[in-house]
Amino acid sequence: MIRRVLLLGLVAVVVACTAGEPAAVPAPASAPASAPQRIVSLAPALTSMLFRLGLGPRVVGVTRYCDDPPEAATRPHVGGFADADPEAILALKPDLVVAVQSPAMAGLFTRLEGFGVRTLAVQQDSLTATWAAFEAVGRATGKTDEATAAVAAARAALPVSAAKAAGLKGKRVLFVYGRAPLVVAGPGSFGDELLTMLGAVNAAAAFQRPWPKLTAEEVVTARPDVILDAAAAMEGEAPGFFTGLPGLSGVQVVAVTHPGLMQPGVRVVEGLSWLAERFP
Amino acid sequence: MPWALLALAAAALAVHAGSAPLDVGRALALGPRSDSVEAGVFWQLRVPRVLMGLVLGGGLAGVGVVFQAMLRNPLADPYVLGVSGGAALGGALGLVFVPFGVWAGAGAVQVCAFGGALLATLLLWRLARGATGASALVILLGGTVFNAFAAAAVLLLQTLLPAQRAQAIMFWLMGTLRVETLGAAALVPAALAVLLSLAFLLRLGPALNALALGDLGAAAVGVDVTRLRRRLLVAACVIVGAAVSVGGLIGFVGLVVPHFLRLLLGPDHRRLLPAAILAGGTFLVLCDAATRALFPVLDTDLPVGVLTAGLGGPLFLFLLWRERERLS
Q: Are B59 and B197 in contact (CB under 8 A)?
């Protein structure tokens, strides 16, 4: 009896939940009829792109994490990544909302589209994806040519900046993005893309995941010559953290604080120049 | 019905609280069919959220009353039966294995969470079935241990997942009424499940009173204890499963509200249960309104579970302190 009731309830909910709403309509990728005038950005990297396309005055809302350029932080905040607030967004009367694709965004976008707001979700987990995202943002905002030109310029500038960081060429480098837990850039990650461009050897290449969490033992056996400590930006500098490990007393630890090296985005060119100054 | 009036007043107050200012009078005048954004925000975002607050708060407080009576344990709350752990684990598995595309509006996670809740209850029911006199103890211990196990499993998933998905799980588990993005297809069945189960529980008030006499005493006044337990358990499981599936783990509502009202109204479940349901809805709706009113300060709406526990904990301790002599 009890099982039958429970089963019936489950079936009813499954049916009710799956029968309703239509799937999210993907935002049109082609150029819109009219360029959006009021844009809300739900990701710092996208905010940077919009301002670089000269659309700063049209950006009417950002997340609480958006601080590049500094002017962006003065725009009204509509929440964070997983907690962007539909009511706060709609109150800004946007005609375009841009975000990085994620589970949290799917439901929100369905809602916003119900209110007739255009949405654009892009991927941003690698440099390649970032350039594609930049061009998509350009197309959606009527700045196609500007975006294409900016991407081409950045792509051309990257190898030039990377070549200047000759001090990293051929070195075994461990790119650390967190110390507690100890997260490093593994194969397929943004940090790995950077190391490849720099001609360095990723000391974490043996770990078959983009962002492996390592133990102290694994850091030692990775035998790095150089440790780029990007965790320093969030967790503060701690050079002794690595040099205190057995066999690593001679390792060169550099605290990486440039925002362009934290996550894929338009600032990566400046980030590489910043590295080049430290590894001439 | 002073409690109904209180709930109504709380709801009327809560629709005025939002992350952005809104002319409520104008939205009311425009009506739900209007195309204006103002009316849309009010009728499609705010009103459903407040209604869900009433329903979930009422459901959690009602289940709290029922569990405390059924298990004869003042510490029992809606999550004690492992239902919350089951729902959390089910939902987290849904977040992991359901592909991105299926996400939009379909409420796949909600269905997984509800399924997890049902499976956990079924497991505990099986576990406790052989133990007649000790079944309350078996259920309590089994539920607690299952919750701990489920918490470990969820942590494992969080560790293995990419950051974005791990964050989504964490947000959902924190307990929030951020239900606007779920859509009617997920909210309506959940609300219906809670309301129907509550209506069913309300009819069992007298039997709950008999249960306070102990299993033998209840049997002596003609209550089929095993059957009653089973019915209470199923109804409670449906309520908690539905509540967790849309709101995550909203703590303390099911603990503080029943105790507060028991001190105020006494132990008669015919009065206590309906009052607790209405007061639970009131409490949750007011807490949620406060989180939304805080949006301009915090740049986010605080998960309401933070507030229910933050307010409920001290309130509960205060009650204990005041009533310590009567309780000892």
A: yes
Instruction: Tell me whether the CATH fold assigned to A34-156 matches the one assigned to A165-278.
Output: yes
Give the SS3 label for residue A172. strand
Judged by CB atoms closer than 8 Å, whether chains meet at B183 and A101 is answered as: no
Q: B211 vs A134, B226, B254, B287, CA distance in Å?
A: 66, 11, 19, 33
H/E segment holding residue A280: none
Secondary structure E strands in A147-279 = 172-179, 182-184, 201-202, 226-229, 252-255
Share of residues in chain A with pLDDT > 70 (%)? 88
pTM: 0.83
Q: Which of B21, B183, B190 sits opposite A110 (nearest CB)?
A: B183
Report pLDDT for A6: 39
CA distance A98 to B181: 17
A88 to B168: CB separation less than 8 angstroms, yes or no = no
Q: What is the count of residue pairs from A and B with beta carbons less than 8 Å apart?
A: 153
Spatial distance between the Cα atoms of B22 and A12, rounded to a whole number of angstroms? 37
Q: Are A11 and A64 in contact (CB under 8 A)?
A: no
Highest mean pLDDT among A38-42, B150-154, B296-300, B301-305: A38-42
Q: Are A114 and B189 inside 8 Å of each other by CB?
A: no
Give pLDDT, residue B105: 44
Domain spans of chain B, in order of start: 35-327
Q: How far apart are the C-alpha atoms of B32 and B324, rounded to whole Å?
A: 50
Query: Any idea of the CA torsion for B61, B66, B71, B75, to the nearest 10 degrees?
Result: 10
| pLDDT above 70 for A4 | no
Q: Measure the CA angle with vertex B153, ends B148 and B154; round to 5°.
A: 95
CATH architecture of A34-156: 3-Layer(aba) Sandwich (3.40)
Q: How confident is the model at residue B104 (pLDDT cuts 50, 70, 90)?
A: very low
Strands (E), B23-178: none
Looking at CATH, the fold of the domain delimited by A165-278 is given as: Rossmann fold (3.40.50)
The residues spanned by each domain of chain A are 34-156, 165-278
CB contact under 8 A, A21 and B180: no
- Chain A residues whose CB is inside 8 A of the B194 CB are none
ipTM value of the model? Answer: 0.80
Does the distance separating the beta carbons of A101 and B100 come in below 8 Å?
yes
pLDDT of B80 above 90: no
Relative to beta strand A252-255, strand A172-179 is unpaired
- Report the CATH number of the B35-327 domain: 1.10.3470.10
Residues in chain A with CB shorter than 8 Å from the CB of B162 are 210-211
Which of A6, A24, A115 lies nearest to residue B40, judging by beta carbons? A115
Q: Per the omega criterion (within 30 degrees of 0), is the bond before A69 cis?
A: yes
Q: Residue A17 — very low, low, confident or very high, per pLDDT cuts 50/70/90?
A: very low
